[in-house]
Design brief:
The protein is α/β, with parallel strands linked by helices and about 475 residues long. The protein folds into 3 domains: about 200 residues, Isopropylmalate Dehydrogenase; about 120 residues, Rossmann fold; about 100 residues, Alpha-Beta Plaits, CATH 3.30.70.1570. The protein is about 30% helix and about 25% strand. The chain has a 10-stranded mixed sheet, with helices on both faces. It has a 6-stranded antiparallel sheet with strand order 17-16-18-15-19-20, with helices on one face. It has a two-stranded antiparallel ribbon with strand order 6-7. Bound molecules: nicotinamide-adenine-dinucleotide (NAD).
Length: about 475
């Protein structure tokens, strides 16, 4: 029985490494029924800013398994990243990126490194909700949900269990972003308690990223938010030897996509130089996902043997360590010639069925608890204003006080500038003005609408509002810096 999969050859080096990968899979006996779709640059050039034709989604929905070569994303303009679109449209919430050292055959300063980055794929700043609000200021919304955190953290622990890993490390910046990163960290602690067989710890992302670059052997499974996960997975694949070695899986409840960590490498495209290893190792993850474990072992062991034999593409070739520098096609042939062999020194790939029940199938979200009691207690009114000092702005705004709502503070880029601001604080034209109900008592929508009427009536340009809520009596909003 052949497994239907969807394949896209991509841009730049994409076609070269996809041909190499499919040739090896075919020679290794993978039972695949391949549907090909076109995505990326050629579609963008035809004016489709999504980078994918509508009918390509039919194939992805039908096969639910996508082997994808890298594509070129146009910079700036009205284009959205197709990678992000596919991950989010198909609900591929878990980005799984293993990083292993192949020392002494591939040079790395970290011979004992063997870790997996599990990156949240759907949320965070990658929601891509951005606005220019004033002449000087633009914003990007960072959205984090409890179910999103629960899915990815649970996946990380299930992955660790299925792959006999001993520890899960969480990386966040919750010393600064107490609500968003704080939620991720809190959910991590809650779920970690359900997996007493697996150790857990947490670092702030800055020192965590530094340690990943300097002492990656300290880490095992690492789980993090979307942006941090994106950055640290490139760092780890680079320090393991080459970004050309990194494979990845994007796993969801309904579908999965497998792709190299690297991009379309236009600087070496069309020259037959590219290392196909990242895509090939992604394809190995795909074979395990569709239950063709023996073929996955055969492919990976032939690849490991080729690496051990010192037959290397230019990006990992090193005098004294490698034996022969080869192009993409000769590297591919060398792997095919070694099908059936196992490495002598590097760890033999072994994927016994019992271990590899997909971790995603075990990710079951708990029933949603009764929602917290939510009370509206104030509003932040954001203004575009460039006419003077914070005290002058406060004077105008205080004329809008009344009907149970009073100005409590003004911040500029989050820093409190009124009352008792510091003259040294640099101010832009973007102000957040906090109005609260008297004595913290609940207020109504109508009070906010009336307040905005008075603010607008004072000649001020309000650009947005954020309602301030308490949840079960606990403030659901941050203080101003310095408040
Ligand atoms: P890149 O990963 O394409 O290349 C970075 C460097 O690594 C280049 O010097 C390149 O030659 C080298 N390199 C990458 N893959 C290699 C391989 N297999 N063998 C040998 N050397 C390899 O990153 P970039 O140059 O920043 O991005 C190029 C394009 O790829 C951009 O349009 C970017 O948006 C896109 N991109 C796509 C994906 C994806 O489709 N998943 C991921 C990242 C970047």
């Amino acid at each position: 029985m052949k497994t239907p999969i969807t394949v896209a050859y991509g841009d730049g080096i994409g076609p070269e490494i996809m041909e190499a990968t499919l040739h090896i899979l075919h020679e290794a006996g993978a039972a695949l029924d391949i549907e090909t779709i076109v995505i990326g640059e050629s579609i963008y050039k035809r004016g489709l800013t999504s980078g994918i034709e509508p009918h390509a989604w039919d194939s992805l929905r039908r096969t639910k398994v996508f082997l994808k070569a890298p594509i070129t994303t146009p910079l700036g303009g009205g284009y959205k990243s197709l990678n992000v679109t596919i991950r989010k449209s198909l609900g591929l919430y878990a980005g799984v990126r293993p990083c292993v050292a192949y020392f002494p055959f591939v040079f790395t300063r970290h011979p004992d490194m063997d870790l997996v980055i599990i990156r949240e794929n759907e949320e965070d700043l990658y929601a891509g909700i951005e606005h220019r609000q004033t002449d000087q200021v633009v914003q990007c919304l960072k959205l984090i949900s409890r179910p999103g955190c629960e899915k990815i953290v649970r996946y990380a622990f299930e992955y660790a269990r299925a792959h006999n890993r001993r520890k899960v490390t969480c990386l966040t910046k919750d010393n600064i972003m107490k609500a968003t990163d704080g939620l991720f960290h809190r959910v991590f602690n809650e779920i970690a308690a359900e997996y007493p067989d697996i150790q857990h710890d947490h670092y702030i992302i800055d020192i965590g990223a530094a340690l990943l670059a300097d002492k990656p052997e300290r880490f095992d499974v690492v789980v993090s938010l979307n942006l941090y996960g994106d950055i640290i997975s490139d760092i780890t694949s680079q320090v393991s030897g080459s970004v050309g070695l990194g494979g990845s899986a994007n796993i969801g409840e309904h579908a999965a996509m497998f792709e190299a960590v690297h991009g379309s490498a236009p600087d070496i495209a069309g020259r037959g130089l590219a290392n196909p290893s990242g895509l090939l190792l992604s394809a190995v993850m795909m074979l395990i996902h569709i239950g063709q474990n023996e073929v996955a072992e055969r492919v990976q062991n032939a690849w490991l043997t080729t690496i051990e034999d010192g037959i290397h593409t230019f990006d990992i070739y090193r005098d004294g360590m490698s034996r022969k520098q080869v192009d993409t096609w000769h590297f591919t042939r060398a792997i095919v010639d070694r099908l059936g062999r196992t490495p002598q020194k590097l760890r033999v790939a072994s994927y016994p069925d019992s271990k590899l029940a997909s971790p995603a199938s075990k990710v079951v979200l708990p029933a949603r608890p009764a929602p917290a009691r939510k009370a509206l207690v104030g509003v932040d009114v954001f203004l575009d204003w460039a006419n003077g000092s914070p005290d002058e702005l406060a004077q105008v705004l205080e004329t809008a006080n009344g009907d149970g709502l009073n100005l409590l503070m003004i911040t500029n880029r989050g820093q409190k500038v009124w009352p008792n601001g510091m003259p040294e604080t640099f101010c832009t034209d973007h102000w957040r003005c906090r109005f609260m109900g008297q004595g913290g008592s609940p207020i109504s929508h109508q009070q906010i609408i009336d307040l905005l009427g008075r603010v607008g009536g004072s000649g001020l340009d309000f650009i947005k509002t954020e309602n301030l809520y308490t949840f079960d009596g606990e403030a659901g909003f941050s203080l101003g810096q310095g408040q």
